[in-house]
User: What shape does this take?
Amino acid sequence: MSTDATAVPVHVDRGTAYELEPPAHDTDLVEVERGTPAGELLRRYWHPVALSSDATSTPRTVRALGEELILFRSGDGRPGLLHPRCCHRGTTLYYGKVEEHGIRCCYHGWLFDAEGNTLDMPCEPDSGRYKDRYRQPWYPVREYHGLVFAYLGPPDRKPAFPTYDVLDDVEDGWEVIANDENIGLEGDITPCNWFQTHENVMDPFHVFILHAGFSGNQFVAEMASMPEVSWHATEFGVTSHQDRTLDDGRFFHRVTEVLVPTVRIVASPFVDVTGRSDSVAWTLPISRTETKIFTLVKRPVGATVPRPLYDGRRWEELSEAEHQRFPGDYEAQVGQGAVTVHNHEHLASSDKGVVMFRHAFRRALAAVERGDDPVGVTRDTDTATYTVRAGNYIGPRDEVIGLG
Assistant: This one.
């Protein structure tokens, strides 16, 4: 059938979800497993894996960088972190018996010290005349202000242990408290990739929107106004400067920093401490889809650390409907998915800090792939002290703008 009617162009909708590319993530950023580029970079640093109080005479399973390990403290006070499968016949040391000098396997009684050395083989002649031939796989550990740190990388690349000047200069009447309490629904484990929680530290604009506007001001009035933001590459990572002129005319210069790969130093958002930050935190990649934050906080003896409130209530007290009305970091970060879809992102000028940290992380990746030590690693001393820059600096502009 023919017609003389003039054809009318059909409007075609664009930008529908049907046109999205298949989701993909950036493996350089999200991998944590041994043998992957990012996993090998992470293994060139010390990581907190537990509280010191978790290392006891009862073996405890801890997980870090995609590995499951056994933590214990022998009777002589030494913490140990061992591979769970006994090197004899492979049963788990989770059921081992902790003794004065190590942990004894429940199956045939082989006894290993905190460094995996075999001390006793009771079923063998002379209690193991050749016991020096067998060693239980282990990792080096260090305790620092109530946290157990482990080095999970190549033995010949073990770096100096990092310390932090603000934590080691503890005045009379002050103390350093170790904390592993995270906001979350999975036993203090955030169910998403570590990188999407860590890079959030270089996103200061979300404080004004998420924490001050969308969910109500969860901190203090000084934090509720839009800051002037700049980002700065440093020798070890990236800092952000957030500047505000307060209602009383004082200038509020706030500095936040991230160090490659997992250190985050954020001054109190309650502005209860002015000057340099009184805390240092670490983002521990447990697996590719699980994260835990460990924090060391310096505070007056007996003082409590403020927590954000959502419509006057603590996060864990909210109903599901209230979580929708008052979302915070947990909802925004876990809401990206277990591993975010990088090829669906559209980064803008306000994401400059995120981009800068990703670049810093990639440069460290490239260094390891070349066979070099990554940023922040030194191996010619036992310890290396970092000078903290982050903090809340309030006063006349010309006096505080250069601080941090």
